[in-house]
Amino acid sequence: MTFDALVIGGSFAGLSAAMQIARGRRRVCVVDAGAPRNRFASASHGFFGQDGEAPLAMIANARAKLLDYPNVRFIQGLAVGAAAEASGGGFSVVLDTGEALRARKLVLACGIVDRLPDGIPGLHERWGRTVLHCPYCHGYEFDGRPLGVLWLGPMSAHQAQLIPEWGPTTLLLNGREAELDGEMRAQLLARGVSLEPAPLAGMEDGGVRLRDGRLIEIAALYLASRTEMASPLAEQLGCEFDAGPFGPVIRTDAFKQTTVAGVYAAGDAARVPHNATFASADGVMAGASVHQALVFGPPV
Ligand SMILES: Cc1cc2nc3c(=O)[nH]c(=O)nc-3n(C[C@H](O)[C@H](O)[C@H](O)COP(=O)(O)OP(=O)(O)OC[C@H]3O[C@@H](n4cnc5c(N)ncnc54)[C@H](O)[C@@H]3O)c2cc1C
User: Fold this and answer.
1) What residues have CB less than 8 Å from 86, skipping those under 6 apart?
2) In this structure, are 128 and 47 located in the same domain?
3) Same domain for 138 and 284?
4) Overall domain count for the chain
5) Would you say residue 300 has pLDDT above 60?
6) pLDDT level of residue 87 (50, 70, 90 thresholds)
7) Which domain holds residue 40?
8) What is residue 242's predicted lDDT score, i.e. its pLDDT?
9) I need a surface site. Which of 83, 101, 196, 300 has the fewest CB within 10 A?
10) How far away, in angstroms, is 259 Cα from ligand 1 center?
């Protein structure tokens, strides 16, 4: 069977895309590996009407609503290969089980993964709780208590100037003070940011332990993590990428079509900035675009 559309990734972007395609009365299949980027957080914030809900519950609810449509198939699994069919007639996708699927259009909504800095014991396991990247998602909850920003490069200077909106802020330079230029230093001091040059020994529940033994008491540590594609499918298909501020971004047009005709991309993998609302809106655009391409495009 050839689906009208195959959506790889069944989270905020993918389920939003599939909903538009399903409501357009087309046959759509969603493949999802079940590892959304915000699964480390117990609550998601800022999403219209669902502020404070658990991310996995939000996704499960959206999936259940989608599966009310009889023209939807959902596969819990991992897509490992994707290619355009030689005839130009669509796309084939192979799952890790060996199952092969065919579709006229593809939507890549696979998301991204965060690459956290190594060498700071206690940091990785606090990701999504007290180690965070976005104060709009997780900031208000710290109730004005002291906050930290970890220096990872010039982007951290920008982040450290923003964070005082949520609480008194220390920029932890982790032994890399030489990377801070005079202009950045002046801007940070103007925003009331404290600068801590000492290298970090690790994170503890009360804050950040420095190698000289001092504890910097903070409620949360922010960092601008580097990101990578969660899946190699866009690369396999020959999609072009742009260099984003945090990592590569699949290049799309205003209708969320990639540089490969018939392949669309939505969500964190195909945009900056990132949040669940943007991802969902992106998915809606990709889904509606796929539907219209099925209606108005050349027969496939
Ligand atoms: C710690 C943390 C907390 C966050 N908190 C918030 C918040 O409070 N509010 C907010 O708005 N945003 C928040 N975000 C951002 C939010 O998580 C993302 O913007 C959003 O999840 C992006 O949605 P997406 O659908 O593009 O990708 P994702 O949600 O990452 O979903 C991608 C899906 O595709 C699947 N997948 C990947 N590759 C394959 C494959 N090859 N085959 C099958 N399936 C595949 C994955 O398993 C996953 O289920 C947070 C992010 C982090 C890291």
Assistant:
1) none
2) no
3) no
4) 2
5) no
6) confident
7) 2-113+226-296
8) 98
9) 83
10) 23
Q: Say if CB 223 and CB 157 are below 8 A apart.
A: no
Q: Which of 222, 254, 285 is the last residue of a domain?
A: 222
For the segment 137-156, the average pLDDT, to the nearest whole number, is 96
Distance CA 138, CA 39 (A): 14
Both tokens of 119, joined, read 């060498």
Any residues with Cβ below 6 Å from ligand 1, and which? 8-14, 31-38, 40-41, 44-47, 78-79, 109-111, 114, 128, 137-138, 230-231, 233, 267-268, 274-277, 279
User: What would the pLDDT profile of 264-287 be if each residue is shown by its tens digit?
Assistant: 999 999 999 999 999 999 999 999
Q: Are residues 146 and 178 in the same domain?
A: yes
131, 132, 137, best to mutate for ligand 1 pocket (most atoms within 8 Å of CB): 137
Judgement on whether residues 126 and 205 belong to the same structural domain of the protein? yes
**Structure token digits, residue 159:** 């982040």
The answer on 69 and 129 residing in a single domain is: no
DSSP-derived pairing of the beta strands 91-95 and 100-108: antiparallel
